[in-house]
Design brief:
This protein is an alpha+beta fold and about 230 residues long. Helices cover about 40% and strands about 10% of the residues. The protein contains six helices and six strands. The strands form two sheets. A four-stranded antiparallel sheet has the order 3-4-6-5, covered by helices on one side. α1 packs antiparallel against α3. It is globular and about 60 Å long. It starts with 15 loop residues before the first strand and ends in an 8-residue tail after the last strand. The relative contact order is 0.15. The structure holds zinc ion. Zinc ion binds next to loops.
């Protein structure tokens, strides 16, 4: 008989998001896979405490980044690797494309999206201005390390030092050779995808090129499609 885990699949770290971040992540998950699907995922992830009570809508730091990682793992356990990652990507995208106004009091600069001066910028400049704010929210669990953003001729490179999707997880040893398997941080790819859609009105191409769980030192995401040049 199957016994669901009694504790989060990834042990809590003490690095916590505001409860509001957890609330909106769970609401986005529910939007993608229905309330029943979200509940089943929470049970599979060892987060039964949230089945009947989502985190409160406040800024107290109570939602451990290990909960995000546990949900990403729970989705893969439940739906299989490819489907699980697809769902976590859609949840990240849903949260960041629909719910960023809920975070105006954490990151007031998000409001720039509605300013005429921002909307008048070229796509490339809009992305350049938006990425640091998306980083700020994705690492708003009080990480000591801001992500770094580097601009290449035809894409941006976003490097995360602590990634909530793969936190405390490792790829199966059989697949852990560099390049041997798809990176696992689809949830963060979805957050970037949705956040940039919210800022710019366009879906760009997000590619995770390195994943800490696959033996690299950081998770690295490349963002294509913001360049005005026809190079790509
Ligand atoms: Zn990662």
């Amino acid at each position: 008989m199957y016994h669901p885990p009694s504790a989060p699949l990834v042990p809590p770290s003490g690095l916590c998001y505001a409860n509001r971040f957890g609330l909106h992540f769970l609401l986005a998950l529910e939007e993608v896979m229905s309330k029943n699907g979200a509940n089943a995922t929470l049970i599979m992830s060892g987060l039964r405490q949230f089945v009947h009570q989502y985190p409160p809508d406040d800024l107290r730091r109570g939602f451990d980044i290990a909960y995000i990682a546990s949900i990403c793992q729970g989705l893969e356990d439940m739906a299989g690797r490819a489907q699980g990652r697809s769902i976590s990507k859609r949840a990240g995208r849903e949260m960041f494309s629909e719910r960023l106004p809920a975070f105006y009091d954490i990151i007031p600069a998000l409001k720039m999206r509605t300013a005429a001066s921002y909307q008048a910028l070229a796509l490339h400049a809009q992305v350049e201005a938006a990425l640091p704010l998306l980083d700020q929210l994705i690492i708003s669990f009080d990480s000591p390390h801001r992500g770094t953003i580097i601009e290449k001729p035809d894409h941006f490179v976003y490097t995360m030092h602590q990634c909530p999707a793969c936190f405390g997880r490792s790829a199966d040893s059989a697949h852990s050779a560099h390049g041997g398997e798809q990176p696992m941080c689809a949830c963060v790819s979805g957050m970037l995808d949705g956040g940039l859609k919210w800022f710019t009105g366009r879906y760009l191409e997000i590619v995770e090129s390195q994943c800490r769980a696959h033996g690299y030192t950081h998770c690295v995401f490349e963002i294509y499609g913001a360049s005005e040049s026809p190079a790509r």
